[in-house]
Design a protein that fits this description.
single chain; about 160 residues; alpha/beta; Rossmann fold; 7-stranded mixed β-sheet; about 30% helix; binds guanosine-5'-diphosphate; GTPase Der
Length: about 160
């Protein structure tokens, strides 16, 4: 099997930070060939002896919070078409936003495994805020993680690699 993980979510939730953590010291491969493949990066990683490819979607304009319906659809379609497991990333500090809800609505189209990654759970207090994301109504499970300090990422990967 191909073992592909795609990370999706609105800008600034921490997708690229998690991507970099998952690929470690390995190099990301940029694919900027066409409008559809714009700004996606591929990298390779492994966890408990299982190898995977991870796709970081949605480079957009650096630092921009702007994102449009077309972009959401493209990003999620890519994930749905190519991934074996989808990581839907949200920000526990920001809570549920309308853009998160737009992503959730598009993600409902697939039966592929989806895990909500409740990122920026740097402290236990913040991790407890993950409960509000059940309201999004998608995802098989929610994992509080801090992509910045690494906490929770092991539990997330344990669940992900069970599909590989
Ligand atoms: P992306 O737009 O979804 O790819 O998000 P980035 O990975 O570029 O991160 C956006 C911002 O959130 C950056 O300033 C990161 O340093 C910050 N960030 C990412 N992960 C965490 C985290 O776990 N905790 C905190 N506090 N900040 C984070
Ligand atoms: Mg990014």
């Amino acid at each position: 099997s191909t073992n592909i993980i795609a990370i999706v979510g609105r800008p600034n939730v921490g997708k690229s930070t998690l991507f970099n953590r998952l690929i470690g010291q390995r190099k990301a491969i940029m694919d900027n060939e066409s409008g559809v493949t714009r700004d996606r990066s591929y990298g390779h990683g492994d966890w408990t002896g299982k190898y995977f490819t991870v796709i970081d979607t949605g480079g957009y304009v650096h630092g921009s919070e702007d994102i449009f319906e077309g972009e959401i659809n493209k990003q999620v379609e890519l994930a749905i078409n190519e991934a074996d497991v989808i990581l839907f990333m949200v920000d526990v500090d920001a809570g549920v936003t309308s853009l998160d809800e737009e992503f959730a609505n598009v993600l409902r189209r697939t039966d592929k495994p989806i895990y909500i990654v409740a990122n920026k759970a740097d402290t236990n207090a913040r991790a407890h805020q993950m409960g509000e994301f059940y309201a999004l109504g998608v995802g098989d499970e929610i994992f509080p993680v801090s992509s910045q300090n690494g906490s929770g990422t092991g539990d997330l990967l344990d669940a992900v690699v069970k599909h590989f």
